[in-house]
Amino acid sequence: MYAFIQSELGDIGRIQASGNNAIRYIIGDIKGIMFLINLMHGKLRTPKNIRFNGLIKFMNAKYSLDTQESLLDNSNFLNNS
Predict the structure, then answer these.
(1) What is the pLDDT of residue 50?
(2) What are phi and psi of 24, to 5 degrees?
(3) In the predicted model, what is the mean pLDDT of residues 48-75?
(4) What DSSP string runs through 9-26?
């Protein structure tokens, strides 16, 4: 699954084994993180959007960016699940 995600993201990030039963997918560069933010922006429906906006605020403050906060996706579930 991680290899599929990595290939879909254009080989951004890396896979790291962590212990015997865990694997982490790590995106550590600004370009990769911003790509992921732009990919997910405006598509979250749950309170996870609050944490996502925290990431956007952190990136804006740390790197002097001007990315707008993500709004909740309120579109119809039947048309956009």
Answers:
(1) 94
(2) -115, 145
(3) 94
(4) TTS-SEEEE-SSS-EEEE
The rounded distance, in Å, linking the Cα atoms of 75 and 25 is 29
Q: Is residue 27 within 8 Å of residue 6, measured between CB atoms?
A: no
Instruction: Report domain extents, the chain.
Output: 41-74
Nearest Cα neighbor of 12 from 39, 40, 36 is: 36
Give CA angle at 47 (40, 15), nearest 5°: 45
- For 12-56, what is each residue's pLDDT tens digit? 888 888 888 888 889 989 999 999 999 999 999 888 999 999 999
d(CA 65, CA 58): 10
Query: Tokens representing 28?
Result: 């550590």
Q: pTM of the predicted model, to two decimals?
A: 0.80
